[in-house]
Write a structure and sequence with these properties.
The chain contains six helices and 24 strands. The chain is an alpha/beta fold.
């Protein structure tokens, strides 16, 4: 079982002896919740013939499968963890030349594994790995030949105060070195208690096959993409949001500066977009800076007085920290938003922090103050979009918006008439 200590952000894994009632639980693992490098993995679960699920073991050791976050990107692994000795034996780890994720342990010795392998030029295939012997049991051709030429790199850098950051850079298949492209930044902020964990590289692999989700399709449309750009907010859990806006601006500026330094980004044509808390981030960035020339915010919350009893990692109420709720609410600064922004929201959003009224009121506030804004409501969609028609509509709206304001001839400061169609 696991427990969580909120103030220090500590996650513990405990051994509980159900056959010995009254025996104190024993701590097996204890780490900061954001310490991805120290994540021991999760127990491998198998299903018995009678339908019961159980944790797999090898000679009494628990089998653990983990994402394997490292400074060079994710390298999934399989460990056999000896509970008595408190030591792990590594049975498998993905190598640097490709990305291989273990799916299941197939025998009692841990020698036989079912894995999913891919590389930048090889689409995913399923493999039976027995020691050094590897047999491909299912493979497929690339779903779209155009994806094969996409260039993908893990980029590491620092923000102004020295905190290490990273993003995955995607470049179009026909990219010519030295060309500066219109660039999009996709991100989602997370809270951290220290710079060490904030600077860890997580959720990145430049060795996987470029299968694109909907927001990454912009790469095929001629854009450079800074994907999963790190936007850490660092501080004590009780007061971390006191400097939310300041840290957010440092994060965003560092990412754009790095992309410009690499020679791939045209600083005058950079856009930002995000979903949910990423949309909240997006609105704050355009409310408090001129870094971006266009923005898209999906299913966000913009007025924190509408979530007065806490939100995300914030546990203080509005009445305990009214100045924080105010400073973090881009709605309060709608008159400062001069960057063209597209708001998208599901009409049936059931997430308590992001009811549709958030986008409706934000639209009215920006429009009423003379800003350039468009509001798109998706019928029957909740907080996460599911219907194919909805996702296609979102892609169309976003690419049309970015093309309008990031194109070579776009003039975001005078194109007031473009919103009226």
């Amino acid at each position: 079982m696991e427990d969580y200590e909120r103030v220090k952000r500590i996650v513990r894994t405990l051994e509980v002896r159900l056959d010995q009632p009254g025996t104190a639980a024993r701590v097996i693992f204890s780490r900061n919740e954001r310490d991805a490098y120290g994540d021991p993995g999760a127990p491998a679960i198998a299903t018995a013939p009678d339908g019961r699920r159980f944790i797999q073991e090898i000679d009494g050791a628990v089998v653990l499968i983990g994402a394997g976050a490292t400074a060079d990107g994710d390298r999934p692994f399989v460990d056999a963890y000896d509970l008595a000795a408190g030591k792990a034996a590594r049975l498998f780890q993905s190598k640097l030349e490709g990305f291989e994720a273990p799916l299941a342990v197939l025998d009692k010795s841990g020698a036989a594994l079912l894995t999913r392998y891919e590389s930048p030029t090889e689409p995913p295939s399923f493999r039976l790995r027995t020691g050094a012997d590897v047999k491909v049991i299912l493979s497929a051709s690339a779903p779209s030949p155009s994806l094969l030429g996409i260039k993908k790199f893990l980029v590491k850098f620092q923000r102004a105060d020295g905190v290490p950051l990273s993003f995955t850079l995607y470049l179009p298949p026909d990219y010519k070195p030295g060309t500066r492209l219109p660039t999009l930044v996709w991100a989602y902020p997370y809270e951290f208690s220290d710079a060490g964990t904030a600077g860890q590289v997580t959720g990145h692999s430049d060795r996987s096959f470029p299968e694109l989700n909907y927001h990454q399709l912009a790469v095929l449309h001629g854009y450079a993409l800074l994907d999963n750009a790190a936007m850490p907010i660092i501080g004590d859990p009780d007061t971390v949001n006191n400097t939310y806006v300041d840290q957010l601006l440092m994060d965003a500026k560092a990412a754009v500066d790095k992309a410009v330094e690499l020679g791939v980004t045209d600083r005058a044509r950079v856009g930002v977009f995000g979903h949910s808390y990423g949309a909240f981030m997006t609105a704050n960035l355009v409310a408090h800076s001129d870094i971006f020339r266009a923005a898209v915010a999906e299913s966000g919350a913009y007025n924190r007085t509408l979530t007065p009893f806490g939100f995300q990692a914030e546990r203080r109420t509005f009445w305990q920290a009214p100045e924080v709720y105010t400073k973090m609410s881009p709605f309060w600064f709608a008159d400062q938003i001069k960057t063209p922004i597209l708001l998208i929201h599901g009409q049936a959003d059931d997430n308590t922090g992001t009811y549709p009224i958030q986008s409706e009121r934000m639209y009215a506030a920006i429009r009423g103050n003379g800003g350039i804004v468009r509001l798109v409501m998706l019928p029957a969609e909740a907080h996460g979009y599911r219907a194919q028609e909805s996702l296609e509509h979102v892609v169309f709206e976003e690419l049309s918006w970015f093309d309008r304001y990031l194109g070579p001839e776009a003039n975001a400061t005078t194109d007031q008439a473009a919103i009226k169609r």
